[in-house]
Amino acid sequence: MMTCSNPLPVARRAGTLARLVLLAVLALGLASVGVAGPFGAVAHASTEPLPSPLTLEQALGYAAGHPRVLLAPGSKPASFPLARRQPLFLGCHALAFSGTRGRDDQRDVAWSGLVTAEAAQRLEIRQRFFDVLLADLSYARDNEALAVAFIQFDRASVRAELGQFSPLQVAELEAEYQLILRQRAASEASQRLTRSLLAQALGRPDDLPAELVTPDLTPPPASEASPALEAVVQAAVEHNPRVRQLLQDCSDAECALIRMDVQQQALELLTRLDLLRVIAEQARVESDWRDLKLDESRTMYELEVKADLGFSMSQQTRARRDEEQAALCRDLTRAELAALQGRPTP
User: Fold this and answer.
1) Is the CB of residue 259 less than 8 Å from the CB of residue 237?
2) Which of 121, 168, 260, 320 has its CA 20 to 30 A from that of 8?
3) pLDDT tens track for 228-241
4) What distance in Å separates the CA atoms of residue 176 and residue 230, rounded to the nearest whole number?
5) Number of helices (H), then strands (E), in the chain
6) Which residues of 269-279 are buried (b: 16+ CB within 10 A; e: fewer)?
7) How far is C-alpha 299 from the geometric centre of its chain's CA atoms?
8) Do residues 202 and 125 touch, judged by C-beta distance below 8 A?
């Protein structure tokens, strides 16, 4: 047990050490995001490695050469399943329709049987790309939360040695720290899994992209209205090659079902887009508030009124992640609407 005739300097040194650890943990977390080493990316010998950093436009360029696109129409290999795995983070339907019965695997994916194989692959690449971005933001959020939890636990341990904290209080803070440590470990693992799914979507399963460039997702003007449902359905019937193929030589009942499916998907995408506008505004206001709160905490810290900035920093990171998720979902939904209408994705 530590002994000291003057406990105040001990506490001050512990606080300084804790702040240094906080900065080190944050720096380590930010540096580890997007570094090639932890992901073990190894390219095929017969192909050029993926660009690094990888932009969304570059990633989309790999869609046409993907095996799913090159697969002959009607062929059904029996030796392996063709099902695509779900994204880990980016569930735009679940985000928009909060409070529903839960995650819907069919609605939370961007690809669809109503678009061509190449259009579906481009949508999958876009969603996988965005999933990686959210995985990195989630890791940054959990990394900062871990730094805060560590400082609280570390200070409690020092004060317990001085008789200012009980063993029960220290045990509670340590349990909270271990819980967040577990969450951060899961977030770190998700960085690899999302990159693996993106590599699969690119047709380059052994070349995990380490660093991605966040695209400029400038929101459309507030005055920009969503297209009418009837216009979207009509465009899909007239210009979507996949829908036109499905409507060829179909019975009256089959054609009616196809049109109903097109109309339902168009309605859900348009409704989701309207809801995401509301969510994006709420996320923006939350993020602005957290920025102001961090400024206040920084001022109090400089005046030695507040012990540290960790909590405000972690809350700001969380708010920015939520804001980015809303922006990514708006962009993805607009791309889905474009693909359904047979138009190039934005």
Assistant:
1) yes
2) 168
3) 999 999 999 999 99
4) 53
5) 10, 0
6) bbbbbebbbeb
7) 32
8) yes
Distance (Å) of CA 241 to CA 134, 258, 319, 340, 342: 32, 14, 41, 10, 7
Question: Quick check: 56 and 129 in contact, CB under 8 A?
Answer: yes
Centre a 10 Å sphere on the Cβ of residue 206 and count the other Cβ atoms it contains: 13
Is residue 89 within 8 A of residue 158, CB to CB? The reply is no
Tokens of 117: 């194989």
> What confidence score (pLDDT) does residue 53 get?
95
Residue 239 one-letter amino acid: H
Tell me the C-alpha distance between 277 and 281, whole Å: 6
Nearest-angstrom CA–CA distance, 93 and 272: 7
Would the pTM count as exceeding 0.85? no
Mean confidence (pLDDT) of the chain: 81
Q: What end-to-end distance do the CA atoms of the chain give, in Å? A: 63
- Range name among 7-21, 50-64, 76-90, 221-235 with the lowest pLDDT average: 7-21
Contacts of 196 (CB under 8 A, 6+ apart): 205, 208
Look up tokens 């570390």; give the residue.
Answer: 154
82: its two tokens:
């063709």
Other C-beta atoms lying within 10 Å of the C-beta of residue 43: 13
* Residue among 201, 205, 270, 198 nearest 232 (CA): 270
Task: Please report which helix (H) or strand (E) contains residue 161, including its range.
Answer: helix 117-161
Q: What is the chain's length?
A: 346
Which pLDDT score, from 0 to 100, does residue 217 have?
Answer: 86
CB 269 within 8 Å of CB 336: yes
pLDDT tens track for 308-332: 556 667 677 778 888 899 999 999 9
Average pLDDT over residues 87-104: 81
Quote the CA–CA distance of 31 and 337 in Å, as a whole number. Answer: 37
